[in-house]
Amino acid sequence: xxxxxxxxxxxxxxxxxxxxxxxxxxxxxxxxxxxxxxxxxxxxxxxxxxxxxxxxxxxxxxxxxxxxxxxxxxxxxxxxxxxxxxxxxxxxxxxxxxxxxxxxxxxxxxxxxxxxxxxxxxxxxxxxxxxxxxxxxxxxxxxxxxxxxxxxxxxxxxxxxxxxxxxxxxxxxxxxxxxxxxxxxxxxxxxxxxxxxxxxxxxxxxxxxxxxxxxxxxxxxxxxxxx
Length: 227
Prior knowledge:
- This protein is mainly alpha-helical.
- Helices cover about 75% and strands about 5% of the residues.
- Helix 1 (about 15-30) packs across helix 3 and helix 4 (about 80-105) packs across helix 7.
- The radius of gyration is 19 Å and the shape is globular.
- The chain starts with 14 loop residues before the first helix and ends with a helix.
- The relative contact order is 0.12.
């Protein structure tokens, strides 16, 4: 367990939910790594709480698919498997393509300016080299495109995938060899939406996801080879 894990407090939430949010964020950002054991007493001591809210939080994480229970070992951070990766990214690929197409027709001048600024903010984050900030700026950029669709049901569906998607996105962003490609894809996506070029916007959005899948699968295979 890494030293930076700290309880994220919120006066409006019960302690169980505070622990849940803290552990979930740690899993999504890789502070708690796939296969890492989640020992109740160790987590309780680390977060300064009793074992009960930790136990309840782990059960909630299991329901979300972020934790698995292993016989005779207990709770572990769920592995990122090829099948789970493909399941999520296949859906997100179609949704992102639709978002890009709709944004071509519906984006406002204000949103377009925000999208341009978001591309710049992402590039600045890449220069700093902070993976968490890069991931956050990437999310913010795609959220602008999503919001530009004006389709409330589509926004709801994409947001329902957001937590799992963030985990895969973070793994991809940790591959620093892909950062220049990410910057280029964001620029092409912005230009296509600005020019209302639906075909290029749709294809760029799909390629964006395809490259993520290829990179993450390569990392998964490399991790297995090193074990």
